[in-house]
Amino acid sequence: MRLQLLPHGRRAWTRFGILVGFPLASALLGGCYMISMPGRTHRGPLPPLTEEERALRGRLEGHVRTLAGEIGERSLGRPAGLARAAAYVEAELRGAGHAVASQEHVAGGEKVRNIEAEILGTGAADEIVVVGGHYDSVLGMPGANDNASGTAAVIEVARALAGRKLSRTVRFVAFVNEEPPYFKTEEMGSRVYARRCRERGEKVLAMLSLETIGYYRDEPGSQRYPFPFSLFYPGEGNFIGFVGNLGSRSLVRRCVGSFRSHTAFPSEGGALPGWITGVDWSDHWSFWKEGYPAVMVTDTAPFRYPYYHHPGDTPDRIDYERTARVVAGIARVVVELAGNGGS
Question: Distance (Å, rounded) from C-alpha 132 to C-alpha 118?
Fold first, then answer.
């Protein structure tokens, strides 16, 4: 067989096509791997709130107004506010029907605590699902969306599941010291908690970090992303996001698939490299450090919310109706992750 050589010009274009096309194809395949999710996101009008969701909306607003309005700043810059917030979360979890434990440690010379409630599994009690959110705020800020919204969600998911028989153990944890100057340090509350889980040899199968979940906009251009994700995701900030690292891809897909199967609300998901801006910006990072799969559930914070780490992060900014839909959906996701152990 004779090998016919291409003319010089054609050889050059072929070489160029290989050099450009292969990386481009690889990038597209990699992108599909990271963002391909089961099910379809909800489109179109939202259904009316159910009676249960209307009640949930009112309770969520009450929590946020207490934490970010009455108490305000919740940090070691104002330790009295941090302590009041911890006491409030503890009382609400008890009121929801749970026994409550504290995990104390010292940070900045002050004694602080994580707050934990637990439903012991009926079949696989050694397998654990953690639902957590941080109750502190950034220094000097009221922190309504960041993260009174997530704290309120932890309380209400705990209320929704109280008395349920679930196969796996579910823990509801309000973490202290997520914000700077403790973020990604050994004094970060979730870091202390996740490290203890590993030291005890606990089987944490899933961790959901509920982080800044209360702000939604329908206007085109209301949502931003780190490059190049604007090519793949919508430009309207009206969805809830499920974000994990590549090692948590199976958990991300399971959460998104579960949420979409029973909740009529827009949702997006991604299992992304941890070095991408924003992917590791909450308590799920602490669980990744210990090798546990973890997902951040978020409205994407600074990529949508103009009052992130700002004095304007006040309770009136929160869309409580849409937050109630999201929290009700998260509760159903947790039930599926934990496995229904009976009525």
Answer: 12
Q: Which of the residue ranges 28-42, 94-108, 214-228 would you say has the lowest mean pLDDT?
A: 28-42
What CATH architecture applies to the domain 50-338?
3-Layer(aba) Sandwich (3.40)
CA-angle at 325, arms to 101 and 153, nearest 5°:
15
* Sequence-ordered list of residues with C-beta below 8 angstroms from that of 221, at least 6 positions apart, any chain: 235
**Structure token digits, residue 51:** 């009676």
For residue 306, give the amino acid letter: P
Residues ≥6 apart with Cβ < 8 Å to 72? 78, 81, 142
Single-letter code of the amino acid located at 330 = I
SS3 286: helix
pLDDT digits (tens, 9 = 90+) for 257-267: 999 999 999 99
Evaluate if residue 159 carries a pLDDT over 50.
yes
pTM, entire model:
0.91
Please, are residues 125 and 52 in contact by the beta-carbon 8 Å criterion?
Answer: no
Element (H, E) at 200: none
Determine the average pLDDT of the residues in 37-43: 97
Cα 310 from Cα 305, distance rounded (Å): 10
Question: In the chain, where are the structural domains located?
Answer: 50-338
Dist CA 239 CA 120 (whole Å): 32
The dihedral sign for the CA sequence 114, 158, 267, 235? negative
As to burial, measured by CB atoms within 10 angstroms (0-12 exposed, 13-18 middle, 19+ buried), residue 27 is exposed
User: Are 177 and 189 a contacting pair, CB within 8 Å?
Assistant: yes
